[in-house]
Fold:
Amino acid sequence: MRLTVLGSGTNMHPKRAAAGYLVETDQMLLFDFGPRTLMNLLKVGADRHRLQHLFITHHHTDHFADFFTFFFDALFHAKFVAPRPALTIYGPRGTRRLFSALLKAMPGFSAAPFRVTVTELTDRTIRLGRTRVTARTVTHSPGLHCQGYRVEHGGVALAYSGDAEYSEGLVALCRGADVAVLDCSFPVQRPGKGHMHAQDCGRVAREAEVKRLVLSHFYPVAERYDVKAQAGREFGGRITMARDRLKIEIRRPSPAVPKSR
Structure:
């Protein structure tokens, strides 16, 4: 499994794209599609015309605004260059209503020459080829259904919180994951409602017994503090500060070879 961070910041971060994560197994999966992530998708050399599975964590536009540019490009390419496969958009409750309205409202979007399916994936697991994807509700914004995702393939697991506060449900989603990408919006000194600060991220990683913690979704204030050290007060494992276009290979550890006597 390979993780590529397309966006490690927030909506108006001056140096980072907003949320977006490409996960490659036997499938090509995109989790969130925030502003400026499409350009990073191009820069890392991914073929956007093969993308069939888009997972949205919640309906704040900083997590899906680049869908509009992507879809317009997909329409043009499919009509004038080459056919593309069907596209499925997965998301929490309300996703079908929202995207059905958007596709009808935007000029030309409802006449796509490829099949578009919108699936509400709420607190359940699906299988795509040899890959399992689990959605679980998290706490972020009152009145808005928000969820994180877990991807399992080839004996390894990746968890992604989306925007989330600390909760037992988030810990369960991350349980035993090889990599957990968590919402580290703020430092301990400047916490904010609806998101975790760095020490919260460390707590989730420790309680879930993950192998590697990746801090991401930084507001600019987070980078004025040593959030990696703050997370390390709770979690003694490997901690990585995400950056745009960071690639992480997630593999099963090789079995130990017994020493010869």
User: Anything to note?
Assistant: Residues 57 and 91 are 6 Å apart (CA to CA).
